[in-house]
């Protein structure tokens, strides 16, 4: 399989020669990490089969959040932590997308702009959901920032997992949402637009943003999720740890171009596109976020300051639904056993003879230090 790392090894030197002096540190680090991931550059472990004496090298991962080969273990740990927070209620998947007139401003001010976008989307959902005509209580929101399309173009949008119900102000009553309705989408779009406009005026009053960004209709979508807690978690994990492009979508590359697969949403079919190598590098790197910018955030009932209240709400709802409680306990037990198992990256059965077990021989030090 062709990997992003292979493409970087072909085009990165020329790209860095042309643009390296003006590139942010996060981009330089992503290039170095992705090329070094699971190679001798990062070190690893040597294993030997106890039957056929074959030696197997297991190299360390770079753990860069933009690397398509990492995050398997991180995903499992995240899922285990979220199981303890999930409420036994239906959920809604809300997507908020900004218009094209605003994308340049967000890209030029990523640290503040993306944070303001995520906050505006969550606050708008919470405000509308508190209206008694809709939910009547404070919902829990887990929001995830994405910035790409299938063809790696810049397209900022926020995915929000929203609880299908909310807690009253006094914390004593749970108000369930209707089966297929959370809040009105047109009102949500207008409210998000207004909140983000106000935030830009306060934080970036001198920033030139086209007026059309604040006058044209915004796009919001809401989809009910009725697959149960585990189904919601498994589906959401794909959003939380997704990167701009996976290795499986790279069809091939040569000395000049990279060919990728992408899904045409309107036609609902897969197509291929050939992109110049330097353009592929530019498109990929524009989705590498600045260091310290959190692309996953919690609001409302799931805000870190309200964890105790969220725990009480979960216990209250589980008492009213014993079957959900039993299923939750099963998940927790399954999670405990998963933690006790060896890590997915640790070899166990010899890949050569398929019968012997791999025995750890020694740790291999990194070959060279990573870039800053």
Topology:
Elements: H1 4-19, H2 25-36, E1 44-49, E2 55-59, H3 72-83, E3 91-97, H4 100-108, H5 110-129, E4 140-148, E5 154-163, E6 165-167, E7 174-176, H6 185-203, E8 219-225, H7 228-240, E9 250-253, E10 257-264, E11 269-276, H8 277-285, E12 296-300, H9 307-320, H10 322-340, E13 358-364
Antiparallel strand pairs: 1-2, 1-13, 3-5, 3-8, 4-5, 4-12, 6-7, 9-10, 10-11
What's the total count of β strands?
Answer: 13
Q: In terms of per-residue confidence, which ranges show pLDDT below 50 for 5 or more consecutive residues?
A: 322-345
Q: For the CA atoms, what is the radius of gyration? A: 23 Å
Strand content: 15-25%
Specify the structural class.
Answer: alpha+beta
Gap between N and C termini: 29 Å
Average pLDDT number: 88
Instruction: Please tell me the total number of domains.
Output: 2
Question: For the largest beta sheet, what order do the strands appear in spatially?
Answer: 8-3-5-4-12
Helix content: 25-40%
Helix count? Answer: 10
Largest sheet: 5 strands, antiparallel
Give helix and strand order, one letter per element, not per position.
HHEEHEHHEEEEHEHEEEHEHHE
| Overall spatial form | globular
In short:
The protein is of the alpha+beta class.
